[in-house]
Amino acid sequence: MTAPMVRVLPLLALVLLAASCGSGTKTPREAAATTHAATFRGTEIQGPPIDAPSFALRDQDGKVVRLGAQRGRAVVVAFLYTKCPDVCPVIAGNLNTALRRLGPLRAKARVIAVSVDPKNDTPTAVKRYVKAHRLVPEFRFLTGTKKQLAPVWNRYHVAVIANASGATVGHTTFEVLVDGHGLERALYDSHVSAADVVHDVRALQGS
Q1: Would you give the end-to-end CA distance of the chain in angstroms?
Q2: If we measure between CA atoms, which residue out of 207, 17, 195, 203 comes closest to residue 97?
Q3: pTM score
């Protein structure tokens, strides 16, 4: 269950996510972004540079991944969960394909997916997910407790609402392209394509 691209205010998010996965409503973060085809195929973030909020969480191998330690790499930050029945697997698949298509440039790129389901995204569940979806090593799926994850959701303005049964999670879906200086450069929605990500990563890396 997923809601659309970009940072949603908490109160608005409750309205948007209570009933379904999707909505076309724009949010405050979108005010800083416009389609700017000259550089990126994603929605380029305009205005003063925005530092991507940093975080440190454990990945599928139990290793701590720090966003601040990714300097020099292009990073796509996404928010997913392993039991998602619809949009998340598509996003993960497209981002994974983008990494595969980067060839040698993959060493200078990462996809960092942050869990929105601390209850069910256990280390075992994430390992199964990574294997089932054949995620490449440059795709890191980060998990943690709700206490650890909630501050990350808040900093990125990601709304997360688990349904009563706990089977599905309503959450904001967008992906942020972060450059080698740790600045947010572009946004993608749930329809992100591998080709667009490859184009934009290459643009960042000057190749």
Answers
A1: 36
A2: 195
A3: 0.82
How many degrees, rounded to 5, is the angle at CA 153 between CA 152 and CA 156?
85
Reported as type and span, the H/E element at residue 94 is: helix 87-101
The burial class, CB within 10 Å (0-12 / 13-18 / 19+), for 113 is buried
**Other beta carbons within 10 Å of 205:** 16
Assigned CATH topology for domain 10-205 = Glutaredoxin (3.40.30)
What's the CA gap between 62 and 95, in Å, rounded?
A: 21
For residue range 72-81, what is the model confidence (pLDDT) as tens digits?
A: 999 999 999 9
CA pair distance 40, 65, nearest whole angstrom: 26
DSSP-derived 3-state class of residue 80: strand
